[in-house]
Design a protein that fits this description.
The chain has three helices and no strands. The protein is mostly helical and 106 residues long. The protein starts with 7 loop residues before the first helix and ends in a 17-residue tail after the last helix.
């Protein structure tokens, strides 16, 4: 947000906007909880007699013996290595870029 006012007035307006956002979230919470309860009831009903999967779903068109395409495996290892670099470098702090350690401008 682009505030031209500073000081107490600007802080009060920012605080009021924050309170409004919290109020919206709390207003939506009962709907979210009711929806979650409905999903749990549906899942309970589905699994009452056991979950039955179609043979095509179980067998599928996947390679046998756990073999996968080598490029998939390589891509997953690259992703894991990049994530490890970010985590162990401490670069995943709020507002930082993963590899440059420079703050992201808003």
């Amino acid at each position: 947000m682009d505030r031209t006012e500073s000081g107490t007035t600007g802080r009060l307006e920012d605080a009021a906007e924050g309170v409004i956002e919290v109020g919206r979230f709390l207003g939506d919470a009962p709907k979210l909880l009711a929806r979650g309860a409905l999903l749990v009831e549906q899942l309970d009903e589905i699994t009452l007699d056991g979950l039955v999967l179609a043979p095509d779903t179980v067998n599928g068109d996947r390679p046998r013996g756990g073999a996968t395409h080598p490029l998939n495996t390589a891509a997953l290892w690259i992703i894991a290595a990049l994530l490890a670099c970010c985590l162990f470098d401490g670069a995943l702090a709020v507002g930082d870029h993963c590899f440059t350690q420079t703050p992201i401008s808003a």
